Amino acid sequence: MLYATPTLLAALLALASAPEAAPEAADAPPIDAGEVEAADEPAPAVDAPPARSAPTALPSNLDPYSSWTLRLDSAIQATNDDPASAGELAAALDEAPSFTSSLANDDAARNDRNTGLLALARAYLVSGQRDKAVATMDEALRSAGSDPLDVARFGPTLGDLHRERVAALEHAGRGSIKVECAAPCRVYLNEHPAPSNAQGLFVGPYRVHVESSTNAYPPHDEVVVVAQAGQEIAVGFPPGVEGPARPDGLTNGPGEGDEPEVKKAKRILPRWLEVTAMVGGLAAAGAGTFLVLANDRCVGDFQTTPTAEMPGTCADIYDSRVGGLAAIGAGAAFFAGGVITLSIDESRARRTRKAGDAAPDGRTVMIGYTRRF
Asked: What are the beta bridge partners of residue 176?
């Protein structure tokens, strides 16, 4: 049975409705009723590919930081659904250092950044790129600081990688980064507020961001690498300007004491040694005095002293005058030395304390953030 196509049906209808074509229509073969019924039926539908939902447009009035946080959330979700789309997440994470000040004071966004690093590490594992997964996990551990890492939500495979890298970094040891500011400043490491002398850092690269607390100098950004255990990396601020590590007015980072460091006076001898010399000198002088007094007396009977009239009063006598005088001299010397050195050291310590109490309190304490790095 023939099916009438829409084109054939339109042509037949046009011929039937045209007046001048009536004679020719009489000679045309009759149209089968079934063919006409087939022409009225709609053409079979063709399966169309599923339409992909367009990304939700971001509001046009958002500031760059808010826009970035929304794009980061979207990229994390997309990567969790399809690890092959991790490129967008990697690009969003690369923008994090440009929002250091905002991230340092935004726990939620910083946790999202850490979650993004974990999601990216998982995507690399799924795609067989283990080297990138290891590097990304190490970055997550360095950037998390004291923030929690929710590794369990990404499954046991990523959990195994997390434990492996923690053990490896702990084995490699830890170092420190010291920022020497010649002016009041705020210090950030990997978008975290940090003290000017950050200790216990895993080996690896760190993004150092330093801001002037008074806006006297432009911000300074630098990437430094703690290459081995026990290494201390020094960073100066402002760059090229030498200054003390802890001048008056230097901003204290979280975890640092607010009291200025008072330089202790250097002692001639340790206090314990000076006291020991005094006590020992007294003991030696006392022993020497006993020996002098016992000289020429009977051994075992200090009350009796042999005389010319009674030479055989006792079998033996003490001959200890010289030793006693020597002991008295040595004891006196030790005692005097201990007294002199202790007096000098205590006098220096009192002057240092007085100078510290009299110093003007010009220190300005500014905490950039209350969390511990």
From this structure: 232
Name 361's Cβ contacts closer than 8 Å, sequence gap at least 6. Answer: none
Q: Which of the 8 DSSP states describes residue 49? A: P
Q: Other CB atoms closer than 10 Å to residue 143's CB: what's the count?
A: 22
CA distance to 146, 198, 204, 245, per residue, from 229 (Å): 20, 14, 10, 22
Give the pair of three-digit tokens for residue 141. Answer: 């551990």
Spatial contact of 200 and 231, defined as CB atoms under 8 Å apart: no
Alpha carbon distance 194, 185 (integer Å): 11
Spatial CB neighbours of 180, under 8 Å, sequence gap ≥ 6: 196, 234, 235, 236, 237, 243, 244, 245
- CB of 264 closer than 8 Å to CB of 201: no
Query: Alpha-carbon distance 123 to 130, whole Å?
Result: 10
Q: Residue 159 and residue 167: Cα distance in Å, rounded?
A: 13
Phi, psi torsion values for 191, nearest 5 degrees: 65, 25
91-112: b (≥16 Cβ within 10 Å) or e: ebbeebeebbbbbbebeebbeb
Neighbours of 5 (CB within 10 A): 12
Q: Given CA atoms 69, 70, 75, 80 in this order, what sign does their dihedral have?
A: positive
Tens place of pLDDT per residue across the chain (373 aa): 444 444 444 444 444 444 444 444 334 445 444 444 444 444 444 344 334 344 555 566 789 999 999 999 999 999 999 999 999 999 999 999 999 999 999 999 999 999 999 999 999 999 999 999 999 999 999 999 888 899 999 999 999 999 999 999 999 999 999 999 988 999 999 998 999 999 999 999 999 999 999 989 999 999 999 999 999 999 999 886 544 433 333 333 333 344 444 456 677 778 778 788 888 888 988 888 988 887 777 776 666 666 655 665 676 777 778 888 898 888 888 888 878 888 887 887 777 766 655 444 444 333 333 333 3
Contact predicate 191/96, CB 8 Å = yes
User: What contacts 344, CB < 8 A, 6 or more positions away?
Assistant: 268
